[in-house]
Amino acid sequence: MANSDPDPGPAGDPASVPPIDSVHRALRLLKSLRDGETLGVKEAAEMLDVAPSTAHRLLNALCYDGFAVQGRERRYRLGPEFRPDESRPLSIHDLRTAVRPAIEDLGAELGETVHVWIRQGPLLHWVDGVEGTAPTHVKSGGWDRVPAYASAAGKALLSELTNKQLEDVFATGLPPARSSRISNLRSLKRHLTAVRSRGYAISIEESAQGVDGVAVCAKDSLGRPVFAISLAIPSSRFDRTALPEYVDSLRIAVERTEDALERTVAGD
């Protein structure tokens, strides 16, 4: 019986073998990223002539293996697997130098206490802070080893992890927290979905009585979460209608520190 398959072409000729669609599409995305482009899901879908959901899955697959990263405004760019020269870890001194001007200006603008945190496993470590100038304000300093899932800064940082990474971080369970409504990993994952969607995190008296928080995550040039900048506000004055103002100011401070970090890594 005759073979109905297409002619595979001359033996040993790679160009004659039809590409696997998903691999071919992923490589097209990589070529665009390699050429310095940043891609949104809609642009990637139009370039590949596929549904946005398909483009999103392909971009996430590239991110999973480090070939792409998702940066500001949820756009994708080349990842650390192709940029090993930019993978140098930053010291605490680097972080403090980068954040100090921005958090001083943020504190002066809003009159609230500003904190800078990094994550160490399931806990947060305090890096720097500026005490508020409002008549009633949260004291700076004396904060450390806070369960990450029970604070705004921690949730902002955790929201940048995949579910698999979250499972690794909390492999032994969630450490006890004072009054968090999050009781297990499942509820944490659900909560972080909302944090990712809005791009900031809040906490209501979860890590300290009488203190509410708002935080935004800062990333390095490869899109990796580095630290979070948070506002610590007395619960008696916390105003949800002011959240847009808080978040806008935090995002400006984060962008300034991200730019400063890039210059630090580049040696400028």
Automatic annotation (TrEMBL):
The GO terms describing molecular function are: DNA binding; DNA-binding transcription factor activity
Q: Which Pfam families match?
A: HTH_IclR (PF09339), IclR_C (PF01614)
**Sorted alphabetically, which InterPro entries does this protein's record hold?**
GAF-like_dom_sf, HTH_MetabolicPath_Reg, Tscrpt_reg_IclR_C, Tscrpt_reg_IclR_N, WH-like_DNA-bd_sf, WH_DNA-bd_sf
HTH iclR-type domain segment(s): 20-80
The answer to whether UniProt assigns keyword Nucleotide-binding to this entry is no
List this protein's GO terms for biological process: negative regulation of DNA-templated transcription
What SMART domains would the database entry show? HTH_ICLR (SM00346)
Annotated keywords: DNA-binding, Transcription, Transcription regulation
Query: Any idea where the IclR-ED domain is?
Result: 74-263
Question: What is the protein name given in its UniProt record?
Answer: IclR family transcriptional regulator
